[in-house]
Design goal:
The chain is of the alpha+beta class. It folds into five domains: 2-124, no CATH class; 140-233 and 357-475, Dna-directed Rna Polymerase Ii 140kd Polypeptide, Chain: B, Domain 6 (Beta Barrel); 236-353, OB fold (Dihydrolipoamide Acetyltransferase, E2P) (Beta Barrel), CATH 2.40.50.150; 485-531, no CATH class; 536-587, RNA polymerase alpha subunit dimerisation domain (DCoH-like, Alpha-Beta Complex). Helix content is 19%, strand content 26%. The chain has 14 helices and 34 strands. The strands form ten sheets. The chain has a six-stranded mixed β-barrel with strand order 12-26-13-24-23-30. Strands 5, 6, 7, 8 and 9 form a five-stranded mixed sheet that branches. It has a five-stranded antiparallel sheet with strand order 10-14-22-21-16, with no helix packed on it. A hairpin with a 4-residue loop joins β3 (38-42) and β4 (47-51). α9 runs parallel beside α10. The longest helix is centred in the last third of the chain and has 16 residues, at 404-419.
Length: 600
């Protein structure tokens, strides 16, 4: 006897468990009960679970009976002739949808050749073991699983056409690739999800070779000529907004050019780009700290006594400025109202991004790298037929990572480019290497994809044959312009008096134990004086009690908290964070005595 549980509710018991389960599955396949029902037997607890709830992930499988697939050749022919629809296949019980729970009671074969009498279902295709982004990777059955995972993640970070209406959207921190292309080597999934509508990469000529040490490890060398012809150029958009907020007492923000009487008024130069309404004009070239929307706010603190004073009427400056270190052109301005009926101004700034040293690129096989050097076109190596590669990729990145799919795509891309066709690289079902090699040979090239290359600087022929071909390369959103960070003096925290953290806030760069070692090793040890003095402070210390003394500025005398006025006090230089520690120790009733010795 087994308990029956329907949608997590106990319904009763059944005597013959197997008959009950088989009967329900049979009725579902013949359409007598809804097809969204799934049933599962939990042997451990002797429970039959039936589920018809919403929100379950269910997947498609072909039904197998007596070791044979129900999707026979006759059905396949009817489908190809459009005589049979998908819904009819489901209604006839040839294919069915299972959820994760019912899948526990099944034995699924990957291919028809693997079928035995024990099998209950057959996969539609082995590619269904992969997700959408992973199935876009060509020849992925020739790559290792860890690289596939990276390849899947990398595709999500690539720049392309994320939405066709990007010009009328106000999205935060987005980039558009200026000249996206369709890949020469693609998987059938590209057509299924209509990837051509939102491509995210470019086809390049790639050579696997080392060159003057600038593509060591994971870096790549890029041809300057390719960049000048538009390779990997993208546009970066960032929105800014200003709102006229309402405050208690009927006070309100005002968008407009601030008066000179306003508290915190900047210079006239900062407001030069604003029009009469206080909003920047479209097409204005802006750089660091330019004001794009002028705004003033009422005073922050209104006390009872201040109501009649002069300060109460002084408004404060609260304009919207460009983020520090950014520049660009005003792409669009939008004046509207928010939900509460307050005036809302949105400004979108665009900035053209030309590839530079440090920008990140990747192939679809998890082979990511940054630009190590941009080399003039005339200095690049070239093949016998005069082809100059766009990218030079380090061959040392292949053996340990075992991304054979990367090499196969280069070969297939070369065939596709020379033959003028798209190559199918679908996982488990791709055009074979043998076929690609034969095709390349017929096209008048070496079948292994290697070519004789010449040094672009000396004109000498390289002894080694270089593997060169075409592949789809992605530009990733990680660009140097968004990450570059430096600062001199600036804002500090109130508590520790050390520089604040974070690039966006204009913070400092933390120097740790290892960074210190680097400075010393580079012979820049004087930098440490500057680096480790970020919270330098001079404190008077009583030499008798060892505690911090008090400096009475008016009388110009030092008073020890223990001895009093007649104490020997010395000014010592130390970190403010250490002074903070001493204060915290005193608050815990611990006596931190400083014992001073003479320097000399």
């Amino acid at each position: 006897m087994s308990n029956v549980i329907l949608n997590e509710k106990y319904m009763g018991v059944v005597d013959d468990t197997d008959k009950f389960i088989n009967d329900i599955i049979e009725r579902r396949r013949t359409g007598k009960i809804p097809n969204n029902l799934n049933i599962c037997y939990n042997k451990e607890f002797d429970e039959i679970h039936i589920d018809t709830t919403k929100g379950r992930a269910r997947r498609l499988l072909i039904v197998v009976k007596d070791g044979k697939s129900l999707l026979t050749d006759e059905y396949v022919e009817k489908i190809l002739k459009n005589e049979l629809t998908w819904d009819q296949l489901v209604k006839q019980g040839i294919i069915e949808y299972l959820d994760a729970m019912e899948e526990e009671n099944t034995y699924i074969a990957l291919s028809e050749d693997d079928l035995t009498d024990e099998h209950t279902h057959l996969e539609l295709s082995p590619i269904t073991m992969l997700g959408i982004t992973t199935s876009l990777i060509p020849y992925s059955n020739f790559g290792s699983s860890s690289r596939l995972i990276r390849g899947s993640k990398i595709q999500k970070q690539s720049l392309g056409l994320y939405a066709s209406n990007f010009l009328i959207r106000m999205d935060t921190d987005v980039s558009i690739l200026n000249y996206p292309q369709k890949p020469i080597v693609k998987s059938f999934m590209h057509d299924v999800i209509k990837q051509d509508k939102h491509p995210a990469g470019q086809n390049v000529v790639i050579a696997l070779m080392s060159f003057s040490g600038y593509n060591m490890q994971d870096s790549i060398i890029i041809n300057k000529g390719s960049i000048q012809r538009g390779f990997a150029r993208s546009t970066y958009f960032r929105p800014y907004q200003a709102e006229e907020l309402r405050y208690s007492g009927g006070l309100i923000d005002e968008i407009g050019i601030p008066d000179k009487e306003v508290k915190g008024y900047k210079s006239e130069k900062d407001y030069r780009l604003l029009e009469k309404d206080g909003i920047v004009y479209t097409g204005a070239k802006i750089d660091g700290d330019s004001v794009i929307v002028g705004k003033t706010s009422p005073p922050r603190f209104l006390g009872e006594l201040e109501e009649f004073s002069i300060t109460a009427s002084t408004r404060r400056e609260s304009s919207v400025t460009i983020k520090h270190g950014e520049k660009g052109i005003v792409d669009m301005t939008l004046v509207t109202e928010n939900d509460e009926g307050n005036k809302l101004v949105q400004v979108r700034v665009r900035n053209q991004r030309i590839p530079e040293i440090g920008d990140k690129f990747a192939s679809r096989h998890g082979q990511k790298g940054v630009i190590g050097m941009i080399i003039p076109h005339e200095d690049m190596p070239f093949t016998e037929t005069g082809i100059t590669p766009d990218i030079m990729f380090s061959p040392h990145s292949i053996p340990s990572r075992m991304t054979i799919s990367h090499l196969l795509e280069i070969l297939a891309g070369k065939v596709g480019a020379l033959d003028g066709r798209y190559v199918d690289g679908t996982t488990f079902d791709s055009e074979s290497e043998e076929s690609l090699r034969n095709n390349l040979f017929k096209l008048g090239f070496r079948e292994d994809g290697t070519e004789t290359m010449y040094n672009g600087i000396t004109g000498e022929r390289y002894d080694a044959k270089i593997f060169v071909g075409n592949m789809y390369y992605l530009k990733l959103k990680h660009m140097v312009a968004n990450k570059i960070h430096s600062r001199a003096s600036g804002r500090v925290q109130l508590l520790t008096r050390q520089p604040i953290e974070g690039r966006g806030k204009g913070g400092g760069l933390r120097v740790g134990e290892m960074e210190k070692d680097c400075f010393v090793a580079h012979g820049a040890s004087l930098l440490l004086k500057e680096r480790f003095d970020s919270d330098k402070t001079i404190l008077p210390v009583c030499e008798v009690s060892g505690l911090m003394a008090i400096h009475d500025i008016r009388k110009d005398i030092y008073i020890s908290p223990v001895v009093g006025e007649n104490s020997d006090v010395s000014n010592i230089e130390l970190s403010y964070a250490f002074k903070l520690l001493l204060d915290e120790l005193k608050s815990m009733c611990i006596y931190p005595k400083l014992v001073l010795k003479s320097k000399y």
